[in-house]
Amino acid sequence: MPAGSIRDPLWDAVRSFGLEAVHIRRAPSAGPGGAPPGGVPATAVEVPAVESARDGEPLESLRRSLGECRRCRLGETRLNPVFGEGNPRSGVLLVGEGPGASEDESGRPFVGRAGQLLDRILASIELDRNSCFIANVVKCRPPGNRVPSSDEIEACGGILEEQIRILQPGVIVALGATAATHLLRTRQGINSLRNRFHDRGGIPVLVTYHPAALLRTDALKRPVWDDMKRLREFMQGAGLPRNGSDG
Ligand code: URA
C-alpha cells in the first residue's frame, strides 16, 4: 500500500514529521555470547530502599538519588540524568532506551524529534504525559547516541526496577529493542515479540517499535498503530483511564 494511502491518526502524526532521515542509533556489533565489545560483567546495583508509592515521595527520593550517580561511565559524560516523568498513578509505564542530546540537555525523557512523535502516537489513543509515565532503560546519555552497553544497562537496571516496583504499573510498553530485551530478558527480536502481552512478574508488557525507528521506516507505522490499538483495548479492559475517559 502506498504510504500516503494509509488513513489513521498515527499516519497523520508521522506524516507531519516528514520522512527525512533522523539520527538513529547504531547497535555495537555483538561480541562472543552476544555481549557488546568491551562489555564487562554485570555489576550489582544498590539503590536506596524505598518503601511505598503512596505519596510520590519514594519516587522523588529515587529521583534525587540519581543526581550524582556514577554507577557507570555514562555518569561522567552526561549533562543531566533523565529519570523519567509523567503521572506515577496512571498505571501505564512506557520504557525507551536512553536519553539523546535533547533529553541530556533538558533532563526530560523523549523531548527530541522521536519524543515529539511519541507525543503524537500517544495522542492518537488519547494518552499524554499526564496519563502515563515515561522512563528509559538507562538514565544517562550514551555518548554519540550509541546503544547502551550491557554493563551500562545492568548498572542502571536497578533504577528502572525500583521505578517499576514503586509505580506498580498495570501495563508496561517497551519502546524498541533495548527496552524489550532488557525488560523481558530475551534475545528475540521485536517482530516476534509484538502482537501479544508478555508477563513480567505479573505485569503485562507490550512491545512495539521505537518512535525513532518509525521516523526512519515508513512501513512501521501500521504495526505501531496496531500496537497502540491493542494498548487502548487493554487499558479499556483493565479500567486504566485515558484522557477524558474513565477507563
Ligand atoms: N530515545 C529514547 O529511547 N529515550 C529518550 O528519552 C529519547 C530518545
Structure description:
β5 and β6 form a beta hairpin. α1 crosses α10 (221-238). The protein has a 6-stranded mixed β-sheet with strand order 1-3-2-4-6-5, with helices on both faces. It has a single domain, classed as Uracil-DNA Glycosylase, subunit E, CATH 3.40.470. It contains 10 helices and 6 strands, in the order αααββααβαβααββαα. It is an alpha/beta fold. The structure holds uracil. Uracil binds at residues 82, 96-100, 103, 109-110, 112, 114-115, 136.
Write the layout of secondary structure elements.
Layout: H1 9-15, H2 57-65, H3 74-77, E1 85-86, E2 92-96, H4 101-106, H5 113-123, E3 133-136, H6 150-167, E4 171-175, H7 177-184, H8 190-193, E5 197-200, E6 203-208, H9 211-216, H10 221-238
Parallel strand pairs: 2-3, 2-4, 4-6
Antiparallel strand pairs: 1-3, 5-6
Features:
disordered N terminus; Uracil-DNA Glycosylase, subunit E; alpha/beta; six-stranded mixed sheet; 247 residues; 37% helix
CATH architecture: 3-Layer(aba) Sandwich
Order of SSEs, N→C?
HHHEEHHEHEHHEEHH
Quaternary state of this entry equals: single chain
Main sheet characteristics: 6 strands, mixed
Broad shape: globular
The secondary structure category is alpha/beta
> What is the CATH third-level topology name?
Uracil-DNA Glycosylase, subunit E
Which CATH class is shown? Answer: Alpha Beta
Distance between the termini: 34 Å
Helix count equals 10
Strand order of the largest sheet: 1-3-2-4-6-5
Mean pLDDT: 83
Which residues form runs of ≥5 with pLDDT under 50? 1-6, 17-54
CATH superfamily: Uracil-DNA glycosylase-like domain
Approximate strand percentage: 5-15%
Ligand identities = uracil
Radius of gyration: 17 Å
